[in-house]
Amino acid sequence: MKRSKSDPCVYFNVDKNIYIAVWVDDLILLTSNKVERNKIKNKLMQYLEMKDLGKASRCVGLNITRDGDTIMIDQGKYIRDVLTKFGMSDCKPCKTPIEVGLKFTQSAEDEEMDYPYQQAIGCLLYIAQGTRPDISFAVNTLRFNKEPRAEHWTAVKRVMRYLQETKDMKLTYTKDGESNMRGFCDVDWASNNIDRKSRTGYVFISQGGAVSWCSRRQQTVALSTAEAEYMAMSSAAQEALWLRQLHVEFGQPLAGPLHIFSGNQSAIKLSTNYCYLPRSKHIDIRYHFLREHVNNLEIKFNYCRGDKMIADIFTKGTTEHKNLYCIAKMGLRSGVVVRNRPQP
């Protein structure tokens, strides 16, 4: 068994088709080789006090469902527990996690309120990072942990109302899903009213479901939409290179460059243009590394129309229609199990 250089919590043997994921004292063993599986279990039990829980159905708060060629993961039970914990189990559901165009300000006039704000944000972050990319933007926007106001707590409760509506959603991967990994990146330029920093969002999709996603505020102020998009593309490129390396380690290298879709044609041209451009000379050199990887055919940026941009959901509040489009493209489905051929 080798330890992954890309993810130190993963051990694998490509030749024997064995993969082990470790999280503290929880292990998931993936293999189609029953003989090797039993050997590994017996070996581990010689050195560790270990309990074999059989077929994986739940791990670190994630529910795992297999049905033929379909794998689904969800946090339905955890979401219900969170709603109960914060008195929202009977709340009125809503269709989107955050209002379109909602902006927060740091007001000194409002009286600070006593809410279990940090606890709620911690719970929602765990859900957003686990199986619910659709709430990533809303949760990462609600960052007023030290002095939350009534408007912030109202927004937190809206996220919970949305989870009430969608608590049975499962992140779904299918054998028949698109196997060629694709990425989508987007930006909301100067969206922060306080410091005018932009917000980066990206998502990578494989086998019909999201495998990696992010919504975060950029570190520096961008002077144009093209510059902000270029910085977002740089962040997406870093994640793409990590995903490529992971595939190489697992003996399944990607065929050709990993395609990332962006909504700004000027930024796409900037990623391939080595000429001197006065308007972009101030952009930090750390963002230009992506030109090298584009030239090496490791990644490729393509244009995507705004109405087809899945990463919109990571940079701004969207309408119900756009929200439904994005979650469908990311593989979030209701709790209905898809019946395929029987498991081997």
TrEMBL record:
<dbReference type="Pfam" id="PF07727">
    <property type="entry name" value="RVT_2"/>
</dbReference>
<dbReference type="GO" id="GO:0071897">
    <property type="term" value="P:DNA biosynthetic process"/>
</dbReference>
<dbReference type="InterPro" id="IPR013103">
    <property type="entry name" value="RVT_2"/>
</dbReference>
<protein>
    <recommendedName>
        <fullName>Reverse transcriptase Ty1/copia-type domain-containing protein</fullName>
    </recommendedName>
</protein>
<feature type="domain" description="Reverse transcriptase Ty1/copia-type">
    <location>
        <begin position="14"/>
        <end position="99"/>
    </location>
</feature>
<dbReference type="InterPro" id="IPR043502">
    <property type="entry name" value="DNA/RNA_pol_sf"/>
</dbReference>
